[in-house]
Structures are given as C-alpha cells and as structure tokens.
Design goal:
By secondary structure, this protein is mostly helical. The protein contains 4 helices and 2 strands, in the order ββαααα. A hairpin with a 5-residue loop joins strand 1 and strand 2. The chain is rod-shaped. It starts with 12 loop residues before the first strand and ends with a helix.
Amino acid sequence: REGAKSPAPAPGTRRYGSFDNVTLSDRELETLQTKCPDDWEERIERLSSYMASSGKTYKNHLATIQRWAARDRQEAREKAPEKVTEKAPSKPSRRRRWSELAAEMEAEIGGNS
C-alpha cells in the first residue's frame, strides 16, 4: 500500500503528523495543547509514526494520545527515586545532653571506686 492515499479526514478534522494520519478537530487540538503544553507536537508525531509503521488505526486519536500520556506519567512516577518520608531524628536538647553526659561520668567514677 505504499504510496496509497489515506482516506479523507472526517468533516471538521484536520490531518497532523509527518504521515498526515493523525486526525484532530480544532477543539481536540486545543484540548491536547492545554493538557500537554510542552510536548503536544511530539505526541502527535509519536502517534503518527507508530500508526504508519505498525499499520494500526485508532477510533479516537485524542483519546489515544491522552492514554499514552497518562501511561508515560505513571511510568515516570514509578522510575522516580522514592522520597524520604521519615523525619530525621531531632537533636537532643542541651539539657538532655548534659544530663546524659553527667550520668556517663557518674557511672565511670562510680565504677572505678
């Protein structure tokens, strides 16, 4: 099918991606740009390339991109190093340190007699 022309996009949609095979309405494109402001173009390109290389088709390209974005976020969270949630031990108060020191000294003195 190389060189075959893809069917015309549905009314109200436009083609995107290197292979002109990702169809989105203007409203869907705006939604994608809002939800993925930093990488919406890369996400369209990823879907376009995948569909062209695999021959897969999808009923709703926006839904597919959003599902892939959610999966990417989940994988990123799983790969991120765990945050330390344990509170670091607090420093003992000065009074407590002196009392402990005094007790240690007393034990040493008492033990040597």
